[in-house]
Amino acid sequence: MPVFPQNYTSTVSHWQATNRGPGSLWDHGRTDVLPSDADIVIVGAGATGVSLAYHLTRPGMEKRRVVLLDAKDVASCASGRNGGHIGPASWEVMGHLTKPLSHGGGGVSEEDALDVLFFEQETLDLCELIVMRERLDVDFWRGYRLVVSTTPEGVEESKRTLDAYHRAIKRSAKHGDKRLDASALFDAGEAERVSRVKGALGMKWTPSGSWHPHRGITALLKKALENKDMSFYSWAPVASLKEYRGGWTVDCGDRGVIRTKQVVLATNGYTRHLFPDDFAANTGIAAHLTPYRGHAGLVVPPTTYAGDKSLKGQYGIENGPYLIQTPYAGIVLGPFNATVVNTFGSPRDLYGIDDDSVVVPKFREWLANYCRDNYVDWGPESEGEGLARAWSGIMCHSVDMRPLVGEVPGKTGMFISAGYNGHGMATIVNITRCLAQHLVTGVRDHRLPRCFDISQERLDRAAAECLPLLPPEPKL
Ligand SMILES: Cc1cc2nc3c(=O)[nH]c(=O)nc-3n(C[C@H](O)[C@H](O)[C@H](O)COP(=O)(O)OP(=O)(O)OC[C@H]3O[C@@H](n4cnc5c(N)ncnc54)[C@H](O)[C@@H]3O)c2cc1C
């Protein structure tokens, strides 16, 4: 069942609201006639679709006619309504990625987990390189993220995974010569003083970055559009995809039909709708990729947290938010999934929801109160300070905690990159660099972590071993 056009109006994020000037790309190609054929059609103009188009149009790439389509505008879904972090994983991957699937983990080996860790670190370098090379004016910032533990269990988990990381690095044939530029502090008093988070028990610093995601993705799209073989059509929802003489037809309803050799689904939380129901169910793709809704907000701090006293960079706080200090506007924050479940008690507040038109009042209240209640000496908020805006957005949960990337099993010429578990900014630009190479050369790019590859075997294993996301409905 197609989900587009939507029968509701989405909330507007801080990023979308602050990129409305003449340099933005709202409604780009909205009324243009679609071409009748292409070499590659990319469905979805979020970070995945746009960065893929960017990589495919770089000098030196073989000439291809690339068509990018979106059901709405560029960065209208998760990519334009996220927390702004380009926050690579650090040693915590040795916990959640190596945990068995049957315990809610990724079920991969420690070498695979290290592949992911260093791939994500490289993603930050790649983002920085692109921003510098292209001279993008997108509020890019690079520094360290403070990951703050607020429970004894959180401190223990951080120590345990740090040890596991050191052991894995020592044993690793592939990554043994690499070092993660990160450090930890496990002294409660110092952690509270340095982080300014009440009740902090420990913390780590890990390399991280941020940008204005809506301006960032728009800027990449403009670079891609400088190539005459590339075109972008907004408000062109794809209703269905059909195999056609060794390629695909992409049906955009009233907008027209495009024939293409290759098609890429860059549709994240909305991907399952593009497969016939029986195919999605039989392959396990429908069960593997679940949409879920997150909330975020913009808080204008009192002057106790401005200027010299503003937060330096970004945070991830256990049982709290991911949070960044923007250069001018204030603080963007949103609750982690674990925070939502621990605070509000139900995964039903998150999973299986693909409607971003709503800000649920209890999450608005949480966003309004968090900084005031949890930062040391925050102080009173005057009229105009505090929560200035709140929004929601749809992400995509992959049940085995890893994105699905590559050619869809049984569908020659159809590719996918989706399922980032709310962490796409730390992987996408690097994944799509690999995917662009794959599309052009026909050979998988060896830089992509193996554990991201989509295969029927991986889907089957997840279907057999992963826990259901939602508890059974209570019997009445
Ligand atoms: C509240 C929130 C906070 C987040 N915070 C962070 C963060 O701080 N750091 C981080 O790394 N990640 C974060 N994320 C996750 C991150 O934003 C996503 O992982 C990333 O944006 C996914 O990019 P995407 O392009 O794959 O998906 P999307 O941005 O969702 O793009 C998919 C696109 O496909 C289009 N589409 C879907 N179906 C069709 C169709 N049938 N026809 C045409 N077009 C279609 C949609 O319109 C959409 O534009 C957050 C997400 C949310 C919602």
TrEMBL record:
It comes from the Eukaryota. GO terms for cellular component: cytoplasm. It holds the Pfam family DAO. InterPro entries: FAD-dep_OxRdtase, FAD/NAD-bd_sf. Residues 39-437 form the FAD dependent oxidoreductase domain. This is FAD dependent oxidoreductase domain-containing protein. It comes from Cutaneotrichosporon cavernicola.
